Amino acid sequence: MISADLGSPQTALFLLLGLAWAAVSFPSQLNAIPTLGPSGFLSGYIVKYRFSSNGRELLQEGYDKYPNGVYKIALMDNWEVIANGRMMIEDIQKASDTQLDIKEVIADTLQVKYTLNEQVILDPYHIAIVRTPLTRSIASRFAEVREEIVATFLDLIPAQEDWVKIPAYTTSFQIVGRTANRFFVGLPLCRDPDWLDLNTHFAVNVFLSAQIINRFPRFLKPIAGRFLTRMPASMKRANKHLAPIIEDRLAKEEEYKTKDWPGKPNDLISWLLDEAKNEQRTVPELVSRVLSIEVAAIHTTNFCNALYELAAHPEVIEPLREEIETVVKESGWTKEGISKMRKLDSFLKETLRFSGAGGLVDRRKVLQDFTFSNGTTVPAGVTISVPSYVHHHDEALYENAYTFDAFRFYNMRSREGESIKHQAISPNFDYLTFGTGRHACPGRFFAVYELKGLIAHILMLYDVKLEEEGVIPPHKWRGSSKIPSQTGMVLFRKRQEI
Predict the structure, then answer these.
(1) What residue ranges define each of the domains in the chain, with the CATH number in brackets?
(2) Binding site per annotation, positions
């Protein structure tokens, strides 16, 4: 895990140098965009600290102060321009990639040069794999995913007559990691303790490392990146597991003189080999792609949030169980069956809206000066984003926005002509969990089916509750990210028939 001491004198010195760098590099074109809070050398530090310790407060303040407009917040060595309202979101969605670029902002956000592999951003061919062969394989591979869900819960949370306390956060990572890996790399690797431990900790370390590196000014990032990541050790560890598999697949291609050799597995490694070209078809390159997809798939707090919400709202359990039992009787544990679970879909979507982890979405790096439809121009080099959490809690968009309504979207889908709308996988200008437009998260289809499969299994096999009835353990904000309680417990027992 990350061991950087943010309170050390050396780190404090780096942070002060970053403030000085930001102060002297203030882009004059940004003067016309209002600033949230003071922007002076020392006063600006207060804003930076407030944002890093609780971004939600600042984002809500900006949302209230500049509705349907934009404002800026000082970061360590640059500015973030925050866009509020549907009109601004639509402007971002309509922009071309030559104006607003998603690849550069991902590279900056995750500091991929130091935490992953820069080629992952320079040539992100794996995104097309997630969008097409991976998504198309959900139906044919769902039986395996279901099998792994059953086996994972049997190993981690055996159904017992008495209540058992389960650490929600860490267990959620283990469950999601193992289930996703059954789909990605299959048996037996998906159950290998070292592989699962590597994936879980690597995903967490990437995000934590990036957050810490991004506290430093640009000219100090290479130094921070060198000392605050474990990429070489992680790659070596991953190679031990993946190199024999990749080398065997390459040997099979050579033996049969074709990529479509007999018995070829339908998994992530095969999909990558099908798409990779020349120098990309090496063990180090392919391992880095696998790890990159694993980071996106496993570093999700949404299952933990769903677990907390389920335990906090016992009134939704019976309606959900009735729906699941009816659907499974008709369609079995299949992708088609999961698609028919509308109440469960609504519960998950409401969890994503109400408790979603992302404070900022649709983040883009401005490559060419960009003008919003209200006339505000943002200069090149600045990052633009949309505040999803506060957007999702806007009373003008959602009635009783601060109330968790599990069947909010089920009721919306029950209206005439709206039966296929309002699904958890369907982004729009009001529902931003997965972003919007052509750059919406390509992995959302697998994520939603996996999460619904996990929640449905819990409902069929267990009773759940919180230590204090109806009280979800308090979350924390780290910058713009909402982190569910990492110490909270959820109690499980074998389902008791009423």
Answers:
(1) 119-494 (1.10.630.10)
(2) 441
